[in-house]
Amino acid sequence: MDFHVKDLSLADEGLKLIEWAEMDMPVLRQIRSRFNQEKPLKGIRIGGCLHITTETANLARTLKEGGAEVYLCASNPLSTKDEVAAALVKYFEIPVFAIRGEDKETYYSHIKAVIDKEPHITIDDGADLVTTLHRERPEKLDKVWGGTEETTTGVIRLKAMARDGALKYPIIAVNDALTKHLFDNRYGTGQSTIDGILRTTNRLLAGSYFVIAGFGWCGKGLAMRARGMGAKVIITEVDPLKALEAVMEGYLVMPMDEAAEIGDFFCTVTGNKSVIRKEHFLKMKDGAIIANSGHFDVEIDLEDLKSISTKVRQIRKEVEEYTLINGKRIYLLSQGRLVNLAGAEGHPSGVMDMSFANQALCIEYIVKNKDKLEKKVYPVPEEIDKEVARLKLIAMGVKIDTLTPEQKKYLSSWEEGT
């Protein structure tokens, strides 16, 4: 089997971690059981560019149980759990091309290794697989039926491709499912980002000023959790509606230029580049801590930071100390890469259960409807979104009401009024 992982001797530890995550992924277990019986993906090759975590491992297992050949590479150089990669290869015979800390050249060679398997369906987290396929392996495009995209950043890139007429196959934006972004982005990013910051720094959040750049669903979740830890939360935004919402939620809202002078912790979750720049670094307090929880390492302008630094040293694992030309020290977490995965373990399994259930069901949907789909970005079908929510409630032991015939009639009519 063709694969490239750090060390197969780590597989036993990885297997236990995969089993631990599986316990809290009941929706995916239900789907896997059905897939095992029905084999809806028989003979299908799937190429996944995802964070190689315990949760991803359980998605890959589910797809393989459905009859698919699954090939995986990392969607970020620092998000791979080497133990999990080894276990997938050794115990589940799923080829993985991913090593934590891989350089840029190796990262893209791993993506190309997956593309060379000529997948019928792609699963992306950030759209690096799709864009590399389009730019560097266009001869493989005619083999692809469709794909799915896991994260906000990737959906933005893919919609831009579709708008420019560059997208050559249909993509389902799994990120935009209600059972994904309302839970994964909000509760998953919120909890795991705080986890990453605390694991890397061991600093007290209570009483501190915690600056969050971006008040989308990830920013909302992070703000909620930071406030729950006792921090005074400051939001920076460019969208007036999101800024107004943050004000109504009771957060301080101001430009980054002002927040830079106040903040003790800074975390970017915007999906845009150079959100924290030279002028902001120079205004920060001595000892300010900066992190990113967006997909790519572009939100904190690292070139600007280096250009105004006189010394850089590794002071803790995942913490670099930059001494600036003004004598102040700035602490960068996890090289500016997504701190929740590089500094911790990413989203809890319970929330990834819904995200990856969406992935599995959307892949099944593409296989069934490949001849009907156009070359554009699609939302997750409503029936899939609701099915994931229904299965999650069942797994949690929660029951809900159903509409009576009279209520259904009332909601579908216009005759009745006051």
From TrEMBL:
<comment type="function">
    <text>May play a key role in the regulation of the intracellular concentration of adenosylhomocysteine.</text>
</comment>
<dbReference type="InterPro" id="IPR000043">
    <property type="entry name" value="Adenosylhomocysteinase-like"/>
</dbReference>
<feature type="binding site">
    <location>
        <begin position="151"/>
        <end position="153"/>
    </location>
    <ligand>
        <name>NAD(+)</name>
    </ligand>
</feature>
<keyword id="KW-0520">NAD</keyword>
<feature type="binding site">
    <location>
        <begin position="216"/>
        <end position="221"/>
    </location>
    <ligand>
        <name>NAD(+)</name>
    </ligand>
</feature>
<dbReference type="GO" id="GO:0004013">
    <property type="term" value="F:adenosylhomocysteinase activity"/>
</dbReference>
<feature type="domain" description="S-adenosyl-L-homocysteine hydrolase NAD binding">
    <location>
        <begin position="185"/>
        <end position="346"/>
    </location>
</feature>
<feature type="binding site">
    <location>
        <position position="272"/>
    </location>
    <ligand>
        <name>NAD(+)</name>
    </ligand>
</feature>
<protein>
    <recommendedName>
        <fullName>Adenosylhomocysteinase</fullName>
        <ecNumber>3.13.2.1</ecNumber>
    </recommendedName>
</protein>
<comment type="similarity">
    <text>Belongs to the adenosylhomocysteinase family.</text>
</comment>
<feature type="binding site">
    <location>
        <position position="53"/>
    </location>
    <ligand>
        <name>substrate</name>
    </ligand>
</feature>
<dbReference type="InterPro" id="IPR020082">
    <property type="entry name" value="S-Ado-L-homoCys_hydrolase_CS"/>
</dbReference>
<dbReference type="InterPro" id="IPR015878">
    <property type="entry name" value="Ado_hCys_hydrolase_NAD-bd"/>
</dbReference>
<dbReference type="Pfam" id="PF05221">
    <property type="entry name" value="AdoHcyase"/>
</dbReference>
<feature type="binding site">
    <location>
        <position position="180"/>
    </location>
    <ligand>
        <name>substrate</name>
    </ligand>
</feature>
<dbReference type="GO" id="GO:0071269">
    <property type="term" value="P:L-homocysteine biosynthetic process"/>
</dbReference>
<comment type="pathway">
    <text>Amino-acid biosynthesis; L-homocysteine biosynthesis; L-homocysteine from S-adenosyl-L-homocysteine: step 1/1.</text>
</comment>
<keyword id="KW-0963">Cytoplasm</keyword>
<feature type="binding site">
    <location>
        <position position="125"/>
    </location>
    <ligand>
        <name>substrate</name>
    </ligand>
</feature>
<keyword id="KW-0378">Hydrolase</keyword>
<feature type="binding site">
    <location>
        <position position="150"/>
    </location>
    <ligand>
        <name>substrate</name>
    </ligand>
</feature>
<dbReference type="Pfam" id="PF00670">
    <property type="entry name" value="AdoHcyase_NAD"/>
</dbReference>
<feature type="binding site">
    <location>
        <position position="184"/>
    </location>
    <ligand>
        <name>substrate</name>
    </ligand>
</feature>
<dbReference type="GO" id="GO:0033353">
    <property type="term" value="P:S-adenosylmethionine cycle"/>
</dbReference>
<dbReference type="GO" id="GO:0006730">
    <property type="term" value="P:one-carbon metabolic process"/>
</dbReference>
<feature type="binding site">
    <location>
        <position position="185"/>
    </location>
    <ligand>
        <name>NAD(+)</name>
    </ligand>
</feature>
<dbReference type="InterPro" id="IPR036291">
    <property type="entry name" value="NAD(P)-bd_dom_sf"/>
</dbReference>
<feature type="binding site">
    <location>
        <position position="237"/>
    </location>
    <ligand>
        <name>NAD(+)</name>
    </ligand>
</feature>
<dbReference type="InterPro" id="IPR042172">
    <property type="entry name" value="Adenosylhomocyst_ase-like_sf"/>
</dbReference>
<keyword id="KW-0554">One-carbon metabolism</keyword>
<feature type="binding site">
    <location>
        <begin position="214"/>
        <end position="219"/>
    </location>
    <ligand>
        <name>NAD(+)</name>
    </ligand>
</feature>
<feature type="binding site">
    <location>
        <begin position="293"/>
        <end position="295"/>
    </location>
    <ligand>
        <name>NAD(+)</name>
    </ligand>
</feature>
<feature type="binding site">
    <location>
        <position position="347"/>
    </location>
    <ligand>
        <name>NAD(+)</name>
    </ligand>
</feature>
<dbReference type="GO" id="GO:0005829">
    <property type="term" value="C:cytosol"/>
</dbReference>
<feature type="binding site">
    <location>
        <position position="340"/>
    </location>
    <ligand>
        <name>NAD(+)</name>
    </ligand>
</feature>
